Each structure stands twice: as C-alpha cells, then as structure tokens.
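User: Before I run my own analysis I want an independent prediction to cross-check against. Here's the chain; please return only the structure tokens and, at the end, one sentence I can use as a sanity check.
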Amino acid sequence: MSYDTMSAWNKTTFADKPAFEFNDSIQRRGGIWAGNIDWNSPPGRSLSNDDYIPPPSHTPSSKTSRTSISVEMPVAPLFRDATSNWSPPASPTSLSPPDSPRVDSACTISSPTTLPSPTKPFALSLKERQKLAAQLHAASCAGDIQHMDLLLSLGASVNSRTLVPHLYESFKPAKTGILSPLAGAAGNMQLAAVQYLHSRGAKINPGVNESSSSPLHEAVKADDLAIARFLLERGADVDSANAYNTTPLMYAVKYSSPATVSLLLDFRPDLSRRSFFGGSAIHWAVWPNRPTVLDLLLQAGADVNHRQGDGSTGLHLAVTAERVESLKCLLRWGADVGARNDGYETVVQVAEKAGNEEVLALVRAAAATGTRR
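Assistant: Structure tokens:
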C-alpha cells in the first residue's frame, strides 16, 4: 500500500533512538535497553535476550543501591519528562498484575515489579494514549510482536486508532484515514501479528469511526489470501463498508488476484452493493480492465447490466475508458448495447464521442447483430 510503514516506524517509534524508552519505573529498577533493531532484517524480528541487560541482583530492601546504579540514558527525553501529566503509583510494590500471557517472550524482565496489566491501565492523558497508539500501529505494521506485547502492557489499547496519510490513494490527492492495529497488520501482510492481536481481543469488524477501513479491506487490498481467509473464518463481514461505502469485494476486484476474489465469493457477498460513486463490483472490475475477474463475478450471478449512480452500465464504462478486453467480456455475457445512461446516451453514442475505432467497431457490430452469450 502507499503508506510507507517503515518510514513511519522510523519516525514515530523505537528505531530512531539509540536506546528504547522504558517507563520510569523500569528505569528505576535498573533495567537497561542495550540493543538496536536492524530494520533490514525480515519482518517480525523481535527483541532478544541479548538486547536486554537485566538489573543486578538485589533484595526488596536495597532501594538505595537501586537508585545508585549508573544507567546510560537514551538521548530522547525520559518517559517521565515526556509525560509530565501522568503520576505513576507511589509504590512499585503496589502493582500486582497477572503475568503476561505470552510465555515465549524473549524479553523477560527479572524484577520484583512486573509491568502493569493491560486490564488495569495507567491513567494516561490523551497525548500519551495517542503516542502509544501510533507506536502500536507501527509495531503491528512491522510485525514486531515483542514490542506490541510491551506496548499493550504499558497501556496501549488493542483497538486504538491511528491517523494514516494517503490511505485512500484512488482520490487525487489521496485521502487520509484511520486504522486499527489489526487493520495495519493485515494491510502489511503480517499474519503472525494479526493472529496475536486477535488473541488479545482486537475487533475483526471495527466500526468506521474505529477503523475507516476494516482489517478485511486492508488484507484484500494487499492481496494476502492467508490473512483474508483467517479473518473471514473468524467472522469478518464480507459486506462491510469502509468510510467511502466500499466493500472488500470492490477492493478485491480492483487490487487482488482471482484467487482472493474467489475466496470472497465463497462467502456470498452482495454483488449489487454500491460504493460512494454508485458503482457495483462490476464497475470496479471494468476500470482496471480485469476480464478474468469480470468472468468470476458474472459466473457468481452479478448483473451484467447493473447501473451506477449516473445510470451507466459496465459497457458504458468500458467504452469510455477504452477497456477493450472488459468490453469483449461484457458483450459475451449479453450486456445490453442499447442501454441508456442518465444522459440518455446509448453505448454506441458514447463510443462515437470517445473516438476509439476498435471500441466503436465492437459495439456497432454487437448492436447490429444483437449478439448474446
């Protein structure tokens, strides 16, 4: 997709800092983040035990020795300085959340105090929540489950939302949208991250005010068959509409392989649904000139003469856009050459105005012979 996830990751979160920003209570316990993540490594690379230097052995009563430990601080400001409106608990020992459900975590913090439970989040300010949400989204897109786990423990919401520029690139200029972490992971083909977020309670069918494009939309747009199947088998709505009333099937016929289109058709989507401009899946398949996908839609029962908002059929669009292969496909399926749009123009009249000789010859021949499939 057009949103540069790696650039966003470098800009908003851990990769641009010489050290990772643990919160103040972790720093007080003496834990030191000593590693850097090489983003040229394969997606999903997470923290390792070599990246974390645990605090020296001490007893609960050795508070003085803990505060005297020399810790190399990151160049970026401390979590305390960056979030001055947040007051942590007076005593770290007052925190007694359950252990993290991820027993395979490579970053185990050996300390008398565990990280706060996601079920009992800190009283974070709006700015702090937004920062955690942006970092969780970036980690989700990168497939970094280890950081996702940590951010959720620090209070990030698994269903947080993040503003994503250029999400809807079909518009000129491209429009901004919001995505949930699950939608971000799905759109960046991070199956393991999708599975992890689902296990932590991420919504598969968020509302448009929570994610303006659903996880299924994003998986289909990325043409990730495995993630699309995972979501559909767990209840993803095949007819869900994004912020512009576009369904996953419409995305599929424009962006995805025939295999992904077939998968969605297996879940019986509404083939007559209209998007924001009034076009159905048929119209979405004509513009990118995808006759194979058109065949799949028509075999599934799509109306070959379905009209969009201005009364144009698929034939009108194929003629206007000079999509010869799509035009031939529609004619084979018996599209009505005599259909008129809201301007009372037939397909032949539109072809005459367009001026493409090959297109005009095809529709004139079809009109003269009444050729049907």
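Sanity check: Residues 271-373 form a domain with the Serine Threonine Protein Phosphatase 5, Tetratricopeptide repeat fold (CATH 1.25.40.20).
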